[in-house]
Amino acid sequence: MVGLPFALLVWPTPYRYDHIDLGRGVSYPVRQSRLTGDTEILFPQGWKSAQKPEPEKVAAPEEDIPPAEVAALDVHASLQGAGLSTGWGYLRVGIYNGSTLNLTEITVEVTVLDSAKQPVVDRRPYRIKYVRSVGAGNTDKPESIPPLQTGEFGTSLGFDVLPGQSWSCQVIGARGTKD
């Protein structure tokens, strides 16, 4: 007769208890609800839910942006660097993305001519990954420039454009993702 109240009030408990061993002699108690299956770990701050890790998001595959849409990119290139004393060695490309894809990469060709209009660097290609978006309060580093938004790409040229030299930059290709 004593066994029935004991069985109803004491066993089975609402939780199944175990422990998680983290190595080096560190372990924490773990409990799992017999009704819901939820698992909790007892940390020094108290019981915390052991949530299942979210599945990793598979990145959308990059694809070449068609030439007609590359032409829809509004590009403003500039050089940065020390200036008149030693030249400019960093290329910054501001872009308005007029394409239908999220812009992740551009390929540009840079040409540098000396004062006699002779090529110093002739159509050197650079593949540039996305740097940052431009906008009020945007401090994140997104991975792409969405359609109808602006952003910047940038890279070191590997040489300096010196005073008296002229230069040009042309976007010859781009890659992006859908969503």
Quick summary:
The protein is mainly β. 6% of the residues lie in helices and 53% in strands.
Computed structural class = mainly beta
Q: Which CATH top level class of the largest domain fits?
A: Mainly Beta
Shape descriptor reads elongated
C-alpha-based Rg, rounded: 30 Å
Strand residue content: over 45%
Spatial ordering of strands, largest sheet: 5-11-8-9-10-7-6
Biggest β-sheet strands, sense, barrel = 7 strands, antiparallel
**Number of discrete helical segments:** 2
Mean pLDDT: 85
Percent range of helical residues: under 10%
Shape-level CATH architecture of the largest domain: Sandwich
Q: Into how many domains do the coordinates divide?
A: 2
Q: H/E element string?
A: HEEEEEHEEEEEE
**Which regions are unreliable across 5 or more consecutive residues at pLDDT < 50?**
none
